[in-house]
Every structure is written in structure tokens, then in C-alpha cells.
Amino acid sequence: AIRPPDSHTNGAGEYDFPAENTNPPEASSQDDPLSEDNVKCALKSHLRLNGWEDIRVAWGGNRGVDIVAKRDRERWLIEAKGRGAHPQARKNYFLAILGQILCTMEAPKAKYSIALPDLPQFRKLWTKLPNEAKARTRITALFVDETGEVTEDSN
Asked: Shortest CA distance to 43 belongs to which of 119, 114, 132, 120?
């Protein structure tokens, strides 16, 4: 099996939690409500409101899974992207985030998602991803709007 270089599973195939980087997002990222760190902030709040605990967030450009949350014996691993400075690059962001989440898929019982700003271009790219690929990988998409509202889409 192919393993990412920063593998975090233990011998039981469960995800070992990395330590959270507790550095708050940079002030400059606050200017854009759909920056990557603001998307992560919205996701962390959403997860907490839905009973997820021990939520670890990799702020800024830190390596590893962007968000790891647990609730009882459940684990949820989420890769997030922000709006980005160039709309032309969003297709590349989308392809990159799919590759990132696929490289983390070591724990068979964990839930895996990608998180993106709720923009028409990202919605269209998610819709164009074949349903068979979504079904086989069980990846869902989380869309975050400018108010911080999070919606999940599995289709």
C-alpha cells in the first residue's frame, strides 16, 4: 500500500492525532472570509456544534491533515482549501485537494472529506467528479459560505 510520508496511523489502523498548531490565523487571512484559515475556523465551529471533540487543526501552511476530529470512536479527516487569489487556478486546487485526501486514507473506519469555499466553480467541479469515484472512496465535500455556514454533499 502507498503511504504518505507523514503517516499517522497506529498499529490498529486508527488515526493517531498530531498535536494541534494553536497559532491563530494571520490577520491578513481575516480580510477574505473564504481564505483557507477562515474555512478551517468555520469547519471547527461546525464540528464542535455537531458533537465532534478533540478537533485538531493545522493552521497556515503546516504539513499533515488540515483537520482531524473525533467523536467517541469515530474519526473524521478533512482537507481544506480557500478561495485562492486566482480563479483560474481553482481547478488545480480541486485536483490537489483530492490527491491530498486520497493520500491520507489509511484508516478504513474513518470518514474523509474535502472542504472548499461555496463557490459555483468548486460546486461544478464536485458535481463533475463521477459518482462512482465518490461512492468507492466515500469522500464527501463540505462547502463553506461567506457567513461560515457549512453544508455537506456526498453526491
From this structure: 114
